[in-house]
Amino acid sequence: MMSFFRSKFLVWTCAFAMTFGAVSSLAYASDQPDPGGTKTGTIVDVPAAKPGAPTFQELGDAVGHNHVAINFVWTLMTGFLVMFMQAGFAMVEAGLTRAKSVAHTMAMNFMIYPMGMLGFYLCGFAFMFGGIGAIGTMGGYSGLSHELTLNLFGKSFGILGWSGFLLQGKGYDVAAFALFLFQMVFMDTTATIPTGAAAERWKFSAFMIYGAFIGTLMYPIFGNWVWGGGWLSQLGTNFGLGNGYVDFAGSSVVHMQGGVIGLIFAWLIGPRYGKYNEDGSINPVQPHSIPMAIIGTFILAFGWFGFNPGSTLAGTDLRISVVAVNTMLASATGATAATLWMWWFRTKKPDPSMMANGMLAGLVAITGPSAFVSAGGASIIGLIAGVLVVESVFFFDRRKIDDPVGAISVHGVNGAWGCLSIGLFADGTYGDGWNGVAGTVKGLFYGGGLGQFWAELIGVVTCFITLSVLAYIVYKIADAIVGNRVARDVEIEGLDIPEMGVLGYNGFSMDKFAETTHPKKS
Question: CA 380 to CA 282: how far, in whole Å?
Answer without folding.
Answer: 32
